[in-house]
Amino acid sequence: GAVVSQHPSRVICKSGTSVKIECRSLDFQATTMFWYRQFPKQSLMLMATSNEGSKATYEQGVEKDKFLINHASLTLSTLTVTSAHPEDSSFYICSASQGQGAYGYTFGSGTRLTVV
Amino acid sequence: EDQVTQSPEALRLQEGESSSLNCSYTVSGLRGLFWYRQDPGKGPEFLFTLYSAGEEKEKERLKATLTKKESFLHITAPKPEDSATYLCAGDNTDKLIFGTGTRLQVFP
């Protein structure tokens, strides 16, 4: 079945630094990838949608200069949290649209970001 | 505005005690209704996709059904390992609209 790998699973960084999270589709080409944020005991909040080779589309209220998304290939998307602050601490999850005639969305295992 | 609402927020069941989780949706141009299971600290794990009213799908102790306004996830004779958060999401062709989930705890 479709597998999405997300790395790292946990990261702790100092306030003011930047952190990059990778999302890879291992056995399929993902034309579209999605980035979500999840607070404790809450549901997934979509941050942005990225299509391979084009700029990401951000949801209302999400700072595109703070959350940089790159989708340079059909199997890799990255989310960079720039100048991180403690309020950016959260659980970040990516998902990939299977595309190529297969309908569905596969999720990564998530990244727990803690900014100290 | 597209919206997905799940109830109850939390559910505690004794092992073997069957129950149902509800997902009410208002999603324009619904392409599919998804159910996922999420364990703490993990990403959502796919369970089912339903496409049209009247459709039903089963997997082990779980059965998902769909009407024009709601979806139900029926859990028959649950076991402790079924404890998780169950998420429902509607696809409006642009993105998935998630509900807030139902946290299920099954006690032995």
Keywords:
heterodimer, A: seven-stranded mixed beta sheet, 11 strands, globular, B: 108 residues, five-stranded antiparallel beta sheet
Short description:
The complex is a heterodimer of chains A (116) and B (108). Chain A is an all-beta fold and 116 residues long.
| Count of runs of 4 or more consecutive helical residues of chain B | 0
Tally the helices of chain A: what do you get?
0
The rough form of chain B would be described as globular
What order do the SSEs of chain B take from the amino end to the carboxyl end, as H and E? Answer: EEEEEEEEEEE
* Share of helix of chain B, binned: under 10%
| Topology, number of strands of chain A | 11
Quick one: biggest sheet of chain A? 7 strands, mixed
pLDDT < 50 stretches of chain A: none
Radius of gyration of chain A: 13 Å
- Average of the residue pLDDT scores of chain A: 92
Beta content of chain A comes to over 45%
Percentage of residues assigned to helices of chain A: under 10%
Which structural class do you get from the secondary structure elements of chain B?
Answer: mainly beta
The chain-level structural class of chain A is mainly beta
Number of strands of chain B: 11
